[in-house]
Amino acid sequence: MIRRVVAYADGDDLAASRDFYVGVLGFQVAMEDPVLGVTSPTNPTAQVLVPPRGMENPPPRFGVDLGDPDAVDAAHAEAVRRGLRVVYPLTTEPWGVRRFFVEDPSGTVVNVLAHLS
């Protein structure tokens, strides 16, 4: 089940990005480490992540939260079965997500993830 799709923005100046998304657009800060994450105060699934430039190589264009780490494992197995290019290995991150990056058929890098319970 797709829980949410998360947009990514470039993080050249995280303080300026924070000020823009909070002060101009009305988001609220949900996290600041390891990336700046902002959410809508009325719809918490509407989110933007701002990773520092160079944090992830290659940087994903957006993330798909599958809601369950087992669903991430299943999506990874299916991507490998189909011969898709996995550009970041299946990993449990120290900040509490299970994820991998995969290229879609047109070369767009997608972060497939789920938060650990």
From TrEMBL:
- Would you tell me the protein name for this molecule? VOC family protein
Gene3D superfamilies attached here? Answer: 2,3-Dihydroxybiphenyl 1,2-Dioxygenase, domain 1
Q: Where is the signal peptide?
A: none
Classify the source by domain of life: Bacteria
Among InterPro entries, the record links this protein to:
Glyas_Bleomycin-R_OHBP_Dase (IPR029068), Glyas_Fos-R_dOase_dom (IPR004360), VOC_core (IPR037523)
- Which organism was this protein described from? Pseudonocardia adelaidensis
Q: Which residues form the VOC domain?
A: 1-115
